[in-house]
Design a protein that fits this description.
Layout lengths: L1 H19 L1 H5 L2 H4 L2 E2 L2 E7 L46 E7 H12 L11 E13 L9 H15 L18 E21 L6 H21 L2 E9 L3 E4 L1 H6 L8 H15 L6 E8 L6 H18 L3 E6 L7 H9 L6 E6 L5 H9 L4
Parallel strand pairs: 5-6, 5-8, 8-9, 9-10
Antiparallel strand pairs: 1-2, 2-3, 4-5, 6-7
């Protein structure tokens, strides 16, 4: 029990460090690159590891055996080579933190509202529910309190119970075990469709911002939806669906036709995700350069006529680039003012990621 308490206390310390330096962890790409299924390895500096210390009366003593003053004790490091530094070393400890825990910290730090599911599509989650007590069962499900009560009732009924010496010893027939019933719970289902401009003006810094944002967006949506699917679309003058690794590693040098991504996104939704059954979240990231004003008009028409009436929220994140004009964001704001289901965020640099996540997830849709 003590080990479990110590472990829980350590996890609370780790969470406290993450909360204290939350903005740093949000923009730390190395952390996200060290995912292992549902866990993320997070470096936590300056947590002192437990070690034995002598008290003031035990700070020294006389040793026995061979050796000279200054010789290293068994297990201690020998003197190193090279010049001594003038700063203390920093202990860095890697802690495994679940993505759910990170999502909870994200929600707490940004004060994110819980999402109200819109679609009706459900996935069944099967869990075990302890529904009663039985006289037989496996030992790991033995219920001590119920077993003791049965033994106490038997002792009182048989007249062997002594209030002055209240010793009660359960026998086999007193044992009670928890009984399990499998419970199926419906969970709301959702799909996130990421679209990203990979034309020549979107450099590594811009794609890193998208990678970081998408990690935290996914973490929060997974916390709200137990069934979450993720799709990825890249585009320059043409669009194609890819896997996650390709999504974040592809670079092109062609022009930009944003409508190609929107049309492919529409096709995926129409063929696989009925808006009456699914919670749908398209996210589009670009530096705001589009091929022509006519294509921008087509995108705005698709948003008006197709996406906004059907999806929970359409999110557009404009990542600033010294090569991009940023015009697309201005056109959206001018043409679609006051559309609640359209969220637009300007992401100037990594430091603005936290604000952008709040823009996207702060509506609770």
């Amino acid at each position: 029990m003590g080990i479990r308490e110590d472990h829980n206390r350590f996890r609370e310390i780790v969470k406290g460090r993450i909360k204290k330096n939350f903005k740093k962890y949000v923009t730390q790409g190395e952390m996200i690159g060290r995912r292992e299924k549902e866990f993320v390895k997070i470096p936590i500096p300056s947590i002192d590891l437990p070690r034995f210390k002598y008290g003031p009366k035990q700070s020294g003593g006389v040793g026995q055996g061979q050796g000279q003053p200054g010789d290293a004790v068994d297990g201690e490091q020998q003197p190193g080579q090279g010049q001594a530094g003038d700063s203390p070393g920093e202990h860095v400890l890697e802690a495994d933190v679940t993505i759910e825990e990170l999502a909870d910290i994200l929600g707490e730090q940004l004060e994110l509202p819980r999402i109200e599911p819109r679609g009706n599509k459900k996935v069944d989650s099967i869990s075990n529910k302890y529904t009663g007590r039985a006289p037989v069962g496996p030992e790991n499900l033995r219920h001590f309190k119920s077993s003791y009560k049965e033994a106490l009732k038997r002792s009182i009924a048989s007249g062997t119970y002594d209030p002055l010496n209240p010793m009660v010893v359960p026998i086999k027939r007193d044992m009670r075990y928890r009984t399990i019933r499998k419970v199926t719970k419906p969970m709301a289902n959702a799909v996130v469709i990421y679209m990203m401009d990979v034309s020549g003006s979107m450099g590594e810094e811009q794609k890193e911002i998208v990678r970081l944002e998408s990690f935290w967006i996914n973490a929060w949506l997974q916390r709200n939806y137990k069934g979450l699917e993720t799709r990825f679309i890249i585009h320059d003058a043409a669009a194609k669906e890819v896997d996650e690794k390709t999504f974040f590693s592809t670079s092109e040098s062609g022009g930009t036709l944003i409508s190609s991504a929107y049309k492919l996104c529409q096709k995926i939704i129409e063929s696989e995700y009925n808006p009456n059954e699914w919670n749908i979240y398209p996210f589009h990231f670009s530096d705001g350069d589009n091929w022509s004003g006519e294509d921008t008009k087509l995108c705005i028409q698709l948003l008006k006529d197709y996406f906004i009436p059907r999806v929970n929220q359409f999110s557009y994140g404009q990542v600033e680039s010294k090569y991009g004009s940023g015009q697309f964001l201005k056109d959206l704001e001018k043409s679609l003012p006051g559309e609640e289901s359209l969220v637009i965020s300007r992401i100037e640099n990594k430091d603005k990621i936290v604000d952008s996540i709040k823009d996207f997830l702060g509506k609770g849709r």
